[in-house]
Design a protein that fits this description.
This protein has 2 helices and 5 strands. It has one domain. A hairpin with a 2-residue loop joins strand 1 and strand 2. Helices cover 28% and strands 43% of the residues. With 82 residues, the protein is of the alpha+beta class. The chain has a 5-stranded antiparallel beta sheet.
């Protein structure tokens, strides 16, 4: 998945908690000097995309893990449904 697809997946995944959710910002994650993923900020929520693990973790405003997904598996489910 490309970055715009990841952004859309993150936002759509949080709509169950808050239908009108809008992004506040995003940051690049580095591991050493290498690109490792992105952190997405929303009012009351955040999500972190770990590229190497093919995982997006979703957190509430206090940092508690809510759930996680694997983008490649999600993409396969969408293809099967089509």
């Amino acid at each position: 998945m490309n970055l715009s697809e990841i952004r859309e997946l993150v936002q759509n995944s949080l709509r169950g908690f808050r239908p009108d959710i809008k992004p506040l910002g995003e940051r690049v994650l580095l591991k050493g000097r290498f690109y490792a993923g992105r952190r997405f900020e929303f009012e009351g929520f955040s999500a972190v995309w770990f590229i190497d693990a093919d995982e997006i973790k979703f957190f509430d405003g206090s940092g508690k893990l809510l759930f996680s997904i694997h983008p490649s598996e999600t993409q396969q489910e969408v293809r099967r449904a089509a």
